[in-house]
Amino acid sequence: MVPEEPWCQDLSEASLPLSREAACQWIRCSDEDLPRLLSAARAAKERFKPAVVTYSRKVFLPLTNLCRDYCGYCTFRRDPGDAGAHTMTPDEVLEVARQGERLGCTEALFSLGDKPELLFPEMRETLRHLGYKSTLQYLESMCELVLRETTLLPHPNPGLLSAEWIERLARVSPSMGLMLESLNAGLLRPGAAHDKAPDKEPAKRLRTVEDAGRLGVPFTTGLLIGIGESVEDRVDTLLAIRDLHARYGHIQEVIVQNFRVKPTIPMRDCPEPTLGEMQRTVAVARLLMPKVNIQAPPNLSAPYYDDLLDAGINDWGGISPLTPDFINPEKPWPHVEQLGARSAAKGHRLEQRLPVYPEFLEAASARGGLLQERLSKAADAEGYARRAA
Ligand code: SF4
Questions:
Q1: Which residue of 70, 73, 76, 255 sits with most ligand 1 atoms within 8 Å of its CB, as the best mutation to test the pocket?
Q2: Shortest CA distance to 303 belongs to which of 329, 333, 277, 324?
Q3: Beta strand 349-353 with 176-177: parallel, antiparallel or unpaired?
């Protein structure tokens, strides 16, 4: 039982957002107290976005899987010469984007390793051959290509970004993202998840999220749970996101992602977070940020993913009818019809959103040009994805 201390007596609307102390207590609550936490989180979600849960219909474009970092949980990254190492050509990007367009997708999610050319001469040579000096320059050009040649809207996820690069990418994509993952700098110590991953230093990632805020760019971020952090670290990571959003108002979505074991990773013997841990983290995220979009990927909690709706999520993230989840290829995305049926069974209507959320459309459109033109065609009156006639 959660003891009847002042921090836990009230989870009503008036008591929100939660304090750090209350969040640290509730994230550890017993199974007996969990229904009370979930019920408060679900009620907060219903006040924020009643009876709806969203997803983004996307294609996944792994522009390059070369990466200069070596995260202990990653199966995506490759070194040059490894089986499966690949940098997509512009033709490949366009081919996948056009296939996605035919299947009703509206998002081109660019996921890629962080600045591989700094470590690998082979990547510098690939970029030189393509006519670019850096991976970010190539990414910018591919976002522009997709925006110009298709109806898809790019959402890049390229790792750490300087203010200058955020500004440049914001001209060719309505939103972008960087997972904060964890504020625990101890994860960089030898043998920990971010040993050999210099770009996962929390201060550097906070700076990117803050720079996006200063520039008014709609931004997706979130935490990764189960990589060696404590539950207090989870709360502190959520609080850091909340603080940045309070200052700049630019966090369009907070992802709560759970670590999953894979047989080939350095962390293959580490325990996975349980569904109960996911529910507690999602519910506390909702109660810390009652008016922020909270997402959890369904494929990483299958087959029980609909239980995450009980914890207060209002979004399933990107779902592709075409491309696999290249980050977790062994965990297929559910079919959209199945996602809709299971969401409906929990009282939610499933809506297709754009990569940029409805409430951030105006900020993205303010950049003008082709981006504004594409957004006005892609969005319906409520800011969701316009349905094909
Ligand atoms: S998680 Fe991202 S930054 Fe880390 S190794 Fe994989 S691709 Fe690189």
A1: 76
A2: 333
A3: unpaired
For the chain, report the end-to-end CA distance as a whole number of angstroms: 54
pLDDT digits (tens, 9 = 90+) for 287-342: 999 999 999 999 898 888 999 999 999 999 999 888 777 677 777 777 888 899 99
| Residue 196 burial (C-beta neighbours within 10 Å; 0-12, 13-18, 19+) | middle
Beta bridge partners of 295: 255, 315
- pLDDT tens-digit series, residues 216-263: 999 999 999 999 999 999 999 999 999 999 999 999 999 999 999 999
In ligand 1, the atom with minimum distance to the C-alpha of 74 is 6
Q: Residue 48, SS3?
A: helix
Three-state SS across 238-267? Answer: HHHHHHHHHHHCCEEEEEEEECCCCCCCCC
Kindly state the helix (H) or strand (E) to which residue 107 belongs, with its residue range.
strand 107-111
* Rounded distance between C-alpha atoms, residue 318 and residue 336, angstroms: 11
Instruction: For residues 83 and 4, give the distance between their C-alpha atoms in angstroms, rounded to a whole number.
Output: 56
Q: What residues are paired with 255 via a beta bridge?
A: 222, 295
* CB of 63 closer than 6 angstroms to any ligand 1 atom: no
